[in-house]
Amino acid sequence: MTAVPGSPLRRRVTGLVGGLVAVAALAACGGGDGGGQPAPAPAPSPPTAGTACTQKPTTEVRTADELTEALAGAQPGSVISLAPGTYAGTFVATAQGTQDKPIAVCGTRDAVLDGGATDGGYTFHLDGTAYWQLSGFTVRGGQKGVMTDRAHGNLIEGLLVEGTGDEAIHLRQNSTDNVVRGNTVQKTGLRNGKYGEGIYIGSAESNWCDQTNCEPDRSDRNLIEGNTISGTTSESVDIKEGTTGGILRGNTFSGAGMTDADSWVDIKGNGWTIVGNTGTDSPKDGFQVHEILDGWGLDNTFDSNTATVNADGYAINVTKNEERNRVGCDNRSVDAGQGLSPEACG
């Protein structure tokens, strides 16, 4: 399998400073651009280097009411510290931080944001935010765990997200240039197994009119790195048509107990780099690439992934447009009945 010359995504990843990977990507997709839609907007400044949770808190909270008040009053540079305990309810952040002065919510796993019933609500909603950092605490319950809408430059790091009705972490409505790193995701899909993804990027085309004014959900240039995902009823990671230029790197997937999907990862967007991930126990394939709409599912690259499938499918199944997606020969297939990929690696 070979890529069309000049078509793969060109990108650079900058900055591993103070533990934060700051992503800046330059996308050059050499083919379909999603049905003639305009190209993705240039990247804003990447998330600030370093984690604000290493700084002295500006606000310490112990109750759900105090957390709600702190979120409403947050300003650039605010650092909200969660005391151990349970914070019952759903929480919304809308303020804008800056690259130099992010807004942070910090806690240990003993600080639990509990969204309650799994049939409604987002336990933590970053709604139109920029440069927020969520670090260390537990997000539990609710229909969805952590949701971002129209959000950019945010860091979601080191959380435990579990027991959700649908997906655990979702970047949506043109959320760009975010970092989702080092989280543990488990026990999703308690309301509806079909929607129990671990991490979900973008929106399905059938939802674009509800979410993005009938235009593609260009949740672009997001970095999904170093997460451990298990106990999901649907895919560990679902990357939708309309998204471009992201990186899926160094994650660990387990498909044991997966009931409503047949791979750890579905790629339906363009120009994604999928590198250094490890998966075990899938119902069918390890990774899949699909063309849901003409011009999507193109120019994705797979390198140095290890897929212990333990099933009858492929390690990496590019279901269409094999000439416009590349599977490197350094990917490793273990106990995949059909082998590495439908086409030769390259």
From TrEMBL:
Membrane-traversing stretches? none
> Could you confirm whether the keyword Signal appears in this record?
yes
- Keyword match Signal: yes
Segment forming the signal sequence: 1-27
Q: Which InterPro entries match?
A: PbH1 (IPR006626), Pectin_lyas_fold (IPR012334), Pectin_lyase_fold/virulence (IPR011050)
Q: Which UniProt keywords apply?
A: Signal
Q: Which domain of life is it from?
A: Bacteria
Chain residue ranges for the region called Disordered: 33-57
Q: What Gene3D superfamilies does the annotation carry?
A: Single-stranded right-handed beta-helix, Pectin lyase-like
User: What name goes with this protein?
Assistant: Parallel beta helix pectate lyase-like protein
